[in-house]
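Slide 14.
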Amino acid sequence: KEIKTFEHTLARQGTLVLKFFLNVSRDEQKRRFLERLDDPEKYWKFNDGDLAERKLWPDYQFAIEEALSATSTSYAPWFLIPADDKWYARAAIADIIAARLEQLDLHYPTVPLDEQAKFADYARQLEEEGDTAS
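Slide 15: predicted structure.
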């Protein structure tokens, strides 16, 4: 409830809230762990606790489903992204973000006409300064 309240407050204030869940399959997780254990430069990415946590996969899947269902709303949606292929996941996220930004229909601020009328004078003043090398 607190998460939804917080996100609703953000949305009401004009913040675009997008949440991405990168869904890696159990097989892909195993492949990535084995890759880390096979490459000394990736050892730092592995923790023996990863093996213990992996045994809890079904519990995590249930918890993830519960959390996403409870906190996905029209004003702060979750996007579930298949993430076995990193390139695809990144492209999918970029596409969603770009589409949502376009929907915002953003524009540069407008300058009142009376202020615009002064711009030619401002330009003249700057040009009359001459070059000032530092």
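Speaker note: Helices lie at 2-12, 26-38, 49-54, 57-71, 86-103, 113-116, 119-128.
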